[in-house]
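Deliverable D5.2: sample structural annotation.
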Amino acid sequence: MTDAAPAITVRLFDTSDEEAVVALWAEAGLTRPWNDPHVDIARKLAEQPDLFFVATGPDGELVGAVMAGYDGHRGWLNYLATSTAARGTGAGRALVEHAEAALLQRGCPKINLQIRAGNDAVVDFYRHLGYAVDETIDMGKRLIVDEPIDS
Protein backbone atom coordinates (compact mmCIF):
# COMPACT_ATOMS: atom_id res chain seq x y z
CA MET A 1 0.00 0.00 0.00
CA THR A 2 1.35 3.42 -0.90
CA ASP A 3 0.78 6.69 0.87
CA ALA A 4 -1.76 9.01 -0.72
CA ALA A 5 -0.35 12.09 -2.41
CA PRO A 6 -0.51 15.17 -0.20
CA ALA A 7 -3.59 17.29 -0.72
CA ILE A 8 -2.97 20.33 -2.90
CA THR A 9 -5.49 23.17 -2.82
CA VAL A 10 -5.57 25.91 -5.45
CA ARG A 11 -7.11 29.25 -4.52
CA LEU A 12 -6.97 32.91 -5.49
CA PHE A 13 -3.91 34.90 -4.48
CA ASP A 14 -4.43 37.05 -1.39
CA THR A 15 -2.29 40.08 -0.60
CA SER A 16 -1.11 38.28 2.54
CA ASP A 17 0.56 35.74 0.20
CA GLU A 18 2.88 38.30 -1.40
CA GLU A 19 6.10 37.65 0.55
CA ALA A 20 5.69 33.87 0.28
CA VAL A 21 5.07 34.11 -3.47
CA VAL A 22 8.10 36.35 -4.02
CA ALA A 23 10.25 33.92 -1.98
CA LEU A 24 8.86 31.01 -4.01
CA TRP A 25 9.68 32.75 -7.30
CA ALA A 26 13.21 33.47 -6.06
CA GLU A 27 13.66 29.82 -5.00
CA ALA A 28 12.48 28.69 -8.44
CA GLY A 29 14.90 31.05 -10.21
CA LEU A 30 12.20 33.18 -11.84
CA THR A 31 13.22 36.56 -10.47
CA ARG A 32 15.57 38.86 -12.34
CA PRO A 33 17.16 42.15 -11.23
CA TRP A 34 15.23 44.09 -13.90
CA ASN A 35 11.83 42.65 -12.89
CA ASP A 36 10.78 43.60 -9.37
CA PRO A 37 8.35 40.82 -8.41
CA HIS A 38 6.47 43.16 -6.05
CA VAL A 39 5.83 45.53 -8.97
CA ASP A 40 4.74 42.57 -11.12
CA ILE A 41 2.29 41.50 -8.40
CA ALA A 42 0.89 45.03 -8.15
CA ARG A 43 0.44 45.09 -11.92
CA LYS A 44 -1.38 41.75 -11.83
CA LEU A 45 -3.66 42.89 -9.03
CA ALA A 46 -4.63 45.87 -11.22
CA GLU A 47 -5.44 43.61 -14.21
CA GLN A 48 -7.42 40.37 -13.92
CA PRO A 49 -6.56 39.61 -10.28
CA ASP A 50 -9.06 36.75 -10.50
CA LEU A 51 -6.50 34.93 -12.67
CA PHE A 52 -3.72 34.87 -10.04
CA PHE A 53 -3.65 31.56 -8.18
CA VAL A 54 -1.63 29.94 -5.43
CA ALA A 55 -1.37 26.32 -4.36
CA THR A 56 -1.17 25.26 -0.75
CA GLY A 57 -0.11 21.97 0.74
CA PRO A 58 -1.86 19.88 3.39
CA ASP A 59 -0.57 22.13 6.20
CA GLY A 60 -1.70 25.30 4.42
CA GLU A 61 1.84 26.29 3.40
CA LEU A 62 2.15 28.03 0.05
CA VAL A 63 3.80 25.61 -2.40
CA GLY A 64 3.07 27.15 -5.80
CA ALA A 65 1.79 30.11 -7.76
CA VAL A 66 0.82 31.10 -11.28
CA MET A 67 -0.40 34.26 -12.99
CA ALA A 68 -2.77 33.77 -15.93
CA GLY A 69 -4.18 36.32 -18.33
CA TYR A 70 -6.53 36.54 -21.28
CA ASP A 71 -6.58 39.28 -23.91
CA GLY A 72 -9.60 38.02 -25.86
CA HIS A 73 -7.42 36.17 -28.36
CA ARG A 74 -4.89 34.13 -26.35
CA GLY A 75 -4.43 33.12 -22.77
CA TRP A 76 -1.08 33.32 -21.04
CA LEU A 77 0.59 31.60 -18.13
CA ASN A 78 3.30 33.53 -16.31
CA TYR A 79 5.41 33.01 -13.22
CA LEU A 80 4.42 29.36 -12.70
CA ALA A 81 6.53 28.02 -9.85
CA THR A 82 6.41 25.33 -7.22
CA SER A 83 8.62 24.99 -4.20
CA THR A 84 11.45 22.51 -4.47
CA ALA A 85 9.82 20.41 -1.75
CA ALA A 86 6.49 20.30 -3.64
CA ARG A 87 7.89 19.14 -6.98
CA GLY A 88 6.42 15.83 -7.98
CA THR A 89 3.36 16.26 -5.73
CA GLY A 90 1.00 17.47 -8.47
CA ALA A 91 1.10 21.11 -7.33
CA GLY A 92 2.31 22.38 -10.72
CA ARG A 93 -0.23 20.29 -12.60
CA ALA A 94 -3.02 21.49 -10.26
CA LEU A 95 -2.08 25.13 -10.87
CA VAL A 96 -1.94 24.72 -14.65
CA GLU A 97 -5.24 22.81 -14.77
CA HIS A 98 -6.92 25.42 -12.55
CA ALA A 99 -5.65 28.25 -14.75
CA GLU A 100 -6.69 26.38 -17.91
CA ALA A 101 -10.22 25.90 -16.53
CA ALA A 102 -10.48 29.59 -15.60
CA LEU A 103 -9.30 30.63 -19.06
CA LEU A 104 -11.59 28.15 -20.81
CA GLN A 105 -14.53 29.54 -18.81
CA ARG A 106 -13.73 32.93 -20.37
CA GLY A 107 -13.79 31.39 -23.86
CA CYS A 108 -10.03 31.29 -24.31
CA PRO A 109 -9.18 29.12 -27.35
CA LYS A 110 -5.39 28.75 -26.83
CA ILE A 111 -2.81 29.30 -24.12
CA ASN A 112 0.71 30.57 -24.73
CA LEU A 113 3.63 30.69 -22.35
CA GLN A 114 7.30 31.48 -22.43
CA ILE A 115 10.12 29.34 -21.08
CA ARG A 116 13.68 30.57 -20.82
CA ALA A 117 15.99 28.86 -23.32
CA GLY A 118 17.78 25.87 -21.88
CA ASN A 119 15.18 25.12 -19.21
CA ASP A 120 14.59 21.58 -20.48
CA ALA A 121 12.94 20.33 -17.27
CA VAL A 122 10.18 22.93 -17.62
CA VAL A 123 9.77 22.15 -21.32
CA ASP A 124 9.32 18.49 -20.39
CA PHE A 125 6.82 19.40 -17.65
CA TYR A 126 4.61 21.33 -20.10
CA ARG A 127 4.94 18.68 -22.81
CA HIS A 128 3.67 16.13 -20.29
CA LEU A 129 0.60 18.39 -19.85
CA GLY A 130 -0.10 18.49 -23.59
CA TYR A 131 1.74 21.67 -24.57
CA ALA A 132 3.88 21.80 -27.70
CA VAL A 133 6.56 24.14 -29.01
CA ASP A 134 5.05 26.66 -31.44
CA GLU A 135 7.19 27.59 -34.42
CA THR A 136 7.27 31.28 -33.58
CA ILE A 137 9.81 33.94 -32.79
CA ASP A 138 9.33 35.58 -29.43
CA MET A 139 9.88 39.32 -29.50
CA GLY A 140 9.38 42.01 -26.91
CA LYS A 141 9.71 45.71 -26.31
CA ARG A 142 9.85 47.21 -22.85
CA LEU A 143 7.54 50.23 -22.53
CA ILE A 144 8.28 50.88 -18.86
CA VAL A 145 11.80 50.34 -17.60
CA ASP A 146 11.72 49.32 -13.96
CA GLU A 147 14.58 50.21 -11.68
CA PRO A 148 16.87 47.23 -11.02
CA ILE A 149 16.27 45.67 -7.63
CA ASP A 150 19.19 45.23 -5.29
CA SER A 151 20.66 41.74 -5.28
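Annotation notes: The chain has a mean pLDDT of 92. DSSP finds four helices and five strands in the chain.
The annotation will be released with the project's public dataset once the embargo ends.
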